[in-house]
Amino acid sequence: MGAFAMKGHVARWMKLAVGFIALAFCAAPVPGDVGGCGQEPQELDRETFFWSLQGIECDHCRECGLASAACARACSDVLVQSEFPKDCVPLVHDGEVCLRALDDGSCDDYRDYMSDSGPSIPTECNFCPPGGQP
Question: Residue 32: is its pLDDT beyond 50?
Answer without folding.
Answer: no
